[in-house]
Every structure is written in structure tokens, then in C-alpha cells.
Amino acid sequence: MIDPVYSPAGDVLFSSAAMVTPAINTRFVKPGEEPKSYKDFLDPKWKGNLLGLDPRGGGGALFNAISTMKFFKVLDDDYWRRLAPNFTMFGGSQQEQYRMVGRGEYQVALPGSHSAVAPLIAEGAPLKLLDMEEGVVAQGESTMVIKGAPHPNAARLFVDWVMSAEGQETYARAASTDSIRKGVPSYMIPAANLKPKKIINRTWEAAEAGNEYLKSGVMEQIFGRK
User: How far apart are CA 98 and CA 101, in angstroms?
Assistant: First the structure.
């Protein structure tokens, strides 16, 4: 965990932590068959069995994983261009993506947040997060005060409390997740408490680069027009 990270302007901060990585349905993908590298997904056997959130609008877990790994030169555009025909793009929520994989409609959920899959694992869904050779993307979820908010001072007081040790522990306990603040215990359920061998931190610079990728139209060049 790291201490709260503010944007250069001080108006946006990362207030919670999430590990972004693929998940499998363990009823269909047995231990000896588990993908170990993102490159394994290029195998034709996975075609039609992969489900990923549509990355073309930005902001989703798959987009964040793509743009972060691109920024740090882990996986380039050519990899995603080759993978695109193998997976189905889904325009719904992470939770529904995981539910579909848990029901066996697909075998693999491409990168989503571990905090989104945790409640489903707690319910008994046969889902397992993967620790990929290339690394697991760690990102912060943003909290901000909206410009023109009717009670900006009250909003700032609330944000200050959310970022305090008390606020972060309250949030982590209620959401069964991790906090971004040092010293706050993890409340992530054990089955979703991933301890990756390699972490790729989604820094502020990587997030800004992702915005530029989106503006440039590179996502639609790779995955087709919406």
C-alpha cells in the first residue's frame, strides 16, 4: 500500500487500491491449464472463451491495464491487435462480467479489479485471480470534488475523512477490500487477496498517457470503431 496520491493540481486523489488482472472459471480451466502469461491468450483454444470490458471508451479496468502496460512497454499495440479477434468485448459492469464467467458463459475474464470479484468468490462463484508473468497492474480509484458542487467545503471535509486512517478502514471493511493508506489492515477475503510476484503501478503519468491514447483514437484503431 502507498499513502494517498494527489494529482499535480491537487484536485483529484487516489483513495483506494485495486489489483487488475485476469480471472478464470476453475470448473473449466484446471490448474495445469491456467494461463501464466498474457501471450498464452493468443492460443486459438481461447478464442470465444475470453470476455473483456470494452476498452474503447476508457476508464474501465481492461483499458487501464492496456494503457498502463503500454506506457511501461510491457505489452504493445501489436499484442492487443492480435488478441482482439480472440475475445468478446462486453459493455456492462465488471461485476456482470465476472458473473458471466462464473456462470460458465466464458472461461476467462480479461483484466478486472480484484475488489469487484471478491464478493462473488465469497458467494461461492468458481473464480480465481491469476498472477501473470508480465505483472499485475495496481491502480488507485479516484475521489474528487466536482467543480461547481453546491457545498464544496462540506465535500472537501468528507474527502479528508475518507482519506484518514479511520475513513480508509471504514471503507475497506465495508467493501471487503484493501486501502491505499499505509497502516490500514486489509479486509480483502483470502480467496481474492492476491500477492503478485510483480506489480505494475499505474502512476499518475501512466494515467495521463492513457488519456492521450484515448484521444488519439488508438483504441478504435486496435479494436474497431464503436
Answer: 5
